[in-house]
Design goal:
The complex is a heterodimer of chains A (321) and B (199). Helices cover 18% and strands 34% of the residues of chain A. With 321 residues, chain A is α/β, with parallel strands linked by helices. Chain A has three domains: 99 residues, Elongation Factor Tu (Ef-tu), domain 3 (Beta Barrel), CATH 2.40.30; 109 residues, Nucleotide-binding domain of ferredoxin-NADP reductase (FNR) module (Rossmann fold, 3-Layer(aba) Sandwich); 86 residues, Roll (Ubiquitin-like (UB roll)). In chain A, the strands form three sheets. In chain A, strands 1, 2, 3, 4, 5, 6 and 7 form a seven-stranded antiparallel beta sheet that branches. In chain A, strands 10-9-8-11-12 form a five-stranded parallel beta sheet, sandwiched between helices. In chain A, a hairpin with a 2-residue loop joins strand 3 and strand 4. The longest helix of chain A is centred in the middle third of the chain and has 13 residues. Chain A is globular and about 60 Å long. By secondary structure, chain B is an alpha/beta fold. Chain B folds into two domains: 110 residues, 3-Layer(aba) Sandwich (Rossmann fold); 60 residues, no CATH class. Chain B is 22% helix and 30% strand. In chain B, the strands form three sheets. Chain B has a five-stranded parallel beta sheet with strand order 3-2-1-4-5. In chain B, strands 7-6-11-10-9 form a five-stranded mixed beta sheet, with helices on one face. In chain B, a hairpin with a 5-residue loop joins strand 6 and strand 7. In chain B, helix 3 packs parallel to helix 4. The longest helix of chain B has 14 residues. The N and C termini of chain B lie close together (11 Å). Classes of the chains: A alpha/beta (321), B alpha/beta (199). Chains A and B meet through loops of A and loops of B.
Chain lengths: 321, 199
């Protein structure tokens, strides 16, 4: 499996320890030249060759869209995760060659907005690094509210505060600082758009509070890369390819399909973009839907599944793939 | 008229109360009836947080008492869209997120209020609209760019440059107008019959 059809050969030019959990990686084109243009909020999928296993993880670009001599990403180490962040932290060194996808933006700024209100939680700060740089370059009106555990894990809070001063509002858990979201949302001028990136619980809280405060859905943008959840192994029949596969405990259905030699379309690998949507031909069992793409009606119908994040438990499952 | 013959052809719905802290309702003529219908399904405190801007036009005083009886927080009645425009702009300028917008009445009114709302950064898809009353169109001549209001006929003579225009379903949200294209450019003596179709 590979990081999509438009792959870019890059060399790691620098690895910077940002704090005890976060490292920053800089990539330049191996063969020289500038990298493709992107807009704030875009991500790339990084291919990791990890002892015979290929990992494909999406990471938000955090460098300025105004400078594409290099791309930078920041990776938070997740010791209990599936291993991608540990690979980046342990194995990736300056000088190493890697392959990344072209940038894709599923979390772009809506430039019709009069004001951009950003809410970040933890490592969810990364897309806002690029978005604030993009907006600052054109005099855009923005305000960033950033919740983190403590000063030591307030990744880039110092950089942001130095750049944008009072536009940055920091909330540290260990200081008991709390974002008064209802008040914040009720005092925004008409024409404000809301962006939230962080843990799933935070996104849910922000969306629900905004809906209650009368913010139209169109004005609320969110991004959450749901890592595929582990689960019981299950067997799948891929009817078009006439292949039977087994999805392992720590593997996603998409990864198992790719391991069988197929190249289904995908962009986000996190249940939001809709690219890998797959029709179900028949099933006997129950679906464990984990995506943000299909409607509740689709989930109930048993006709569709998002193989990047969703699983299945039961006797048999046949997909149109 | 409701069928989308072209992607840009606006499709209108039925006003319904939305979750919000304030409600701005703008209507002309028979659009008032759409507000009265919405009131039947609205929560008890809806109009206490509502501002109604009403342009009676051809309906005269017919709906005014009924609208006032809804006890909106603010009620404005004006002779024309142009007269209401400064108030509308000022209202948008001072408004906060959580203010929901409802527009009912003629297409010309709906389009022009949406145009001002878009300038204020309001997403057009978040606006509740309902077409009531006249189907007269606001038409932009694609040749001289002049706008002709209240067009009910097909074709129509441009009120600025005098060309005979075919009124298309091609709609511009930016201009809040349908596009009018010269119908007899090759032979100006070929004058098709005029029919009143946008009543």
């Amino acid at each position: 499996m590979r990081a999509g059809s438009n792959r870019i050969d890059v060399t790691v030019t620098d690895v910077v320890v940002v704090n005890e959990l976060v490292k920053r990686f800089h990539f330049e084109r191996t063969h020289g030249g500038i990298l493709p243009t992107f807009s704030g909020g875009a991500h790339v999928v990084v291919e990791m060759r990890d002892e015979g296993k290929t990992r494909l993880n999406p990471y938000s670009l955090m460098s300025s869209p105004l400078d594409t001599r290099d791309y930078t990403i920041s990776v938070r180490r997740d010791d209990a995760g599936r291993g991608g962040s540990l690979f980046m932290h342990r194995e990736v060194k300056p000088g190493q060659r890697m392959v990344i996808s072209n940038p894709v933006n599923l979390f772009s700024l809506d430039l019709r907005a009069k004001k951009h209100l950003m809410i970040a939680g933890g490592i969810g700060i990364t897309p806002f690094m690029a978005q604030t740089a993009q907006l600052a370059g054109r005099g855009g009106n923005f305000e960033l509210h950033y919740a983190c555990r403590n000063d030591a894990l307030a990744t880039y809070a110092d950089v942001l505060t130095a750049r944008y001063d009072r536009r940055i509002h920091l909330y540290r858990d260990d200081h008991g600082e709390k974002l008064d979201l209802e008040k914040l949302l009720s005092t925004q001028p008409l024409g404000t758009y809301l962006y939230v990136c962080g843990p799933a619980g935070m996104i849910k809280w922000v969306r629900a509070t905004a809906a209650e405060a009368g913010w139209p859905d169109e004005t609320v943008h969110f991004e959450h890369f749901a890592a595929p959840q582990p689960g019981k192994p299950f067997d799948v029949r891929l009817a078009v390819s006439e292949v039977d596969i087994r999805v392992g405990e720590h593997e996603s259905l998409l990864e198992a399909i790719e391991a069988a030699g197929l190249n289904p379309p995908y962009l986000c690998r996190g249940g939001v973009c809709g690219q890998c949507e797959t029709n179900v031909i028949s099933y006997d069992g129950k679906f464990l839907h984990n995506d943000h793409w299909l409607s509740e009606e689709d989930h109930r119908s048993g006709c569709k599944i998002m193989p990047c994040v969703s699983r299945f438990e039961g006797k048999s499952l046949t997909l149109e793939r | 008229m409701s069928a989308a013959s072209m992607l840009s052809r606006p499709v209108y719905g039925t006003l319904s109360p939305q979750a919000g802290k304030h409600h701005l309702l703008v209507a002309d003529a028979e659009g008032a009836a759409a507000i009265l219908d919405l009131a039947k399904n609205a929560p008890a405190d809806f109009f206490a947080k509502a501002h109604i801007i009403y342009i009676p036009g051809a309906s005269g005083p017919e709906y005014i008492d009924a609208l006032k009886a809804l006890n909106p927080e603010r009620f404005y009645e004006g002779p024309s869209f142009a007269a209401a425009l400064p108030r509308l702009r000022q209202t948008f300028d001072a408004a906060h997120m959580g203010t929901r917008l409802y527009i009912a009445g003629s297409e010309g009114l709906i389009g022009q209020v949406m145009q001002v709302a878009a300038e204020a950064g309001v997403d057009h898809a978040s606006i509740q609209t309902e077409q009531r009353g006249s189907l007269a169109r606001r038409v932009q001549c694609v040749h001289c760019k002049g706008i002709t209001e209240n067009v009910t006929t097909q074709p129509v003579k441009c009120s600025h440059c005098g060309l005979l225009l075919l009124v298309r379903d091609h709609y511009s949200r930016r201009y809040a107008a349908f596009q009018g294209v010269c119908i007899n450019a090759e032979d100006p003596t070929d004058i098709p019959p005029t029919e009143e179709i946008f009543r």
